[in-house]
Each structure stands twice: as C-alpha cells, then as structure tokens.
Design a protein that fits this description.
Structural class: alpha/beta
Oligomer: single chain
CATH architecture of the domain at 18-140 and 192-224: 3-Layer(aba) Sandwich
Order of helices and strands: EHHEHEHEEHEEEEEHEE
Number of helices: 6
C-alpha cells in the first residue's frame, strides 16, 4: 500500500486504496458526454488509470477505440472490449501516440508532486501531433464543507468524511461508500491545485490549456505547446 493510502471493505484493494468490487458497482456519470463533445468521433483514446472500465465501456459503446492502462491487474480483469495494459502510468512509454490521452479520477492531484509530474509527462509523451489530453480536476469545493454526503439514485451513499492537511500542501482525504449490503472506505493523499498551479504543472510537462470543458473547470482539454 502506498504511504498515506488505505482501503477497507470486501474484495481486492489496490495500492492506492481503491476497492475493485466498489468501482465495479459505481455508475458512469457525465464523463462520456463531456469526452464525446471534446474529441473527434471514433478517436483512439489512451485511458490512463482506467480502473475496472467504468468509463471505458461507455466510450466503446460510443464508437471510440480505447487502450486502457492501470497498475492493478485485478481492476483490468473487469475491462471488456478494450486493449488493456497493466503498468505504472508515470513510467509508461508505449512507443506510440494516440488521438486522445485521458487522465481522469483526479489523478493530477496526486499528493506526490513527482508522481504528478510523471503522470503529465506520460500524457505529453503519448499524445499525437494535433491530438489532445483530457484531464479531470477536483472541483473548487472538493476539500471544503465537510463532512458531506450524496445519495445516488441507484441506492448507495457517498460520504466525503474529512480532508486534513498533512503538510507541504497535501491533504489526507477519507471517503466512504455505503451500499445496502457492504461499506467501503478509502483514505488517500491529494494536493489541491489552484487554476494557476494546475496550468504551471501542465507547462512543466510541455502542455497548455486549450479550453476548460465544463463551467466548474473540472474537465480540461489540453494540447502540446506553451500558452500564448
């Protein structure tokens, strides 16, 4: 288990505290709509941190080709219909490029700045000329107004229990997912980034914001090059 990361609940737990069975139950949200509106039809997408394929499967249904990368073999066993690669994202070098590289699940907010740099460099390394990188950021209130909870229409409850500073701009975050028959928790480290800090991190990897795709700024389309 990575330092500062922990998961509890039934089934396999990945090194960053994610429960495979939990993620197999979570429904897909508006991610496929946001992605589809931002990239060409039929694009080949490199999905970094695909997990069990929650978003992967929805993208395949929309006609995209997906290469799914995750460090957890247990997660990738749940992916159907996509090429899968079990590897660390930070050091990934496939020797090929893609129309779209996707880094979702707030991975850009890794508590380890070196890991974040590695993630963004992997994005830049694998995006084709004229292609784009889609990144999911935390919302502005992600670490505030806690605890809070949301009841999903499908019948489970998500609780953001706490977010406590642990030094050097990093927070220890605890989340809980309560289903009628099981409860999972996940504790992980995250680094809040202002818009300016986020764009500086992109620039360090040779990327720049093309546009923010959602009004809340959570989804971003980035391209190679420096900001004008």
């Amino acid at each position: 288990m990575r330092e500062g990361h922990e998961g509890t609940g039934p089934g396999a737990i990945t090194p960053d505290g994610c429960a495979v069975e939990l993620y197999s139950r979570l429904p897909v949200g508006d991610e496929p709509d946001v992605i589809s509106a931002a990239v060409p039809a039929g694009a080949h997408i490199l999905e970094l941190g695909s997990g069990v394929g929650r978003v992967t499967h929805a993208l395949l249904e929309r006609g995209f080709t997906v290469t799914a990368v995750d460090e957890s073999a247990e997660m990738l066993e749940r992916v159907r219909g996509a090429r899968t690669i079990c590897a660390s994202i930070e050091t990934l070098d496939l020797g090929e490029t893609f129309d779209v590289v996707m880094l979702a699940s707030f991975l850009v907010h890794s508590g380890d700045a070196d890991v974040r740099r590695g993630l963004l460099r992997a994005c830049a390394r694998h995006v084709a000329d004229g292609g784009c990188v889609l990144i999911q950021r935390e919302g502005a209130d992600y670490h505030t107004d806690l605890p809070r909870e949301r009841v999903d229409p499908s019948g489970f409850t998500v609780r953001m229990v706490s977010s406590e500073p642990v030094g050097e701009g990093v927070h220890s975050v605890r989340a809980e997912y309560a289903f009628p028959d099981a409860v999972w928790t996940q504790t992980f480290r995250a680094r809040p980034l202002t818009e300016e800090q986020f764009e500086e991190a992109l620039a360090e990897a040779g990327l720049r914001v093309d546009r923010y795709l959602t009004e809340d700024g959570i989804w971003v389309r980035a391209v190679r090059g420096r900001a004008a």
